Amino acid sequence: MRSDIKEGKTFTDYELPNHKGEKKKLSEIQGKDPMALMLARGGYCPKEDLQHQWMSAMQRELEVGYCKFVTISTDSQLESLEWRTRLGAHWPFLSDEERKIQKELEIKEYTDPKHDPMIPHTIILEPGLKIYKVYNGYWYWGRPTPEELRQDFREISKKVRPDWDLSDPKVKEQWENGNESFFYPYEE
Length: 188
Fold this sequence. Notes:
Layout: E1 15-17, E2 23-25, H1 26-30, E3 35-40, H2 46-57, H3 59-65, E4 68-73, H4 77-87, E5 93-95, H5 100-104, E6 121-126, E7 130-136, H6 146-160, H7 169-176
Parallel strand pairs: 3-4, 4-5
Antiparallel strand pairs: 1-2, 3-6, 6-7
């Protein structure tokens, strides 16, 4: 992984085709929410598939917790769509068949010349694509567990949600003054 991909830096706002073939920017997908970005080998890998199975089980938590998942793999659009469908996943799967991200981030998995995948990483992003944490998932145990994701999302949410603590008198004052833009969902 390139040395500048670390906590506190801003991740590149890549634009790639999703599972439907529509070009999507990461910032467009993220909006104002915390997001876990999975740079994945692809649906052929049993480690990826298992990680994505438990992520699929977390989908409802992310929806009610106002967080996002996005997967980027070197799979084709069709392979991405099939993998997403098989998992019952509802988040975007982006296709990087050209291996632009693999090359730019220097994460070519040279131990698998047949598939030529990326070294798997999970990058936790604060709003604005700000890097909060990077997990190297070449080995399965390097990937974040559901509990680690919950903790990361909790810490980011506490940091970026001005209405996190309703018992704070300053937060209550915002409500009483009619400043509803202070509360989620925040106005643009």
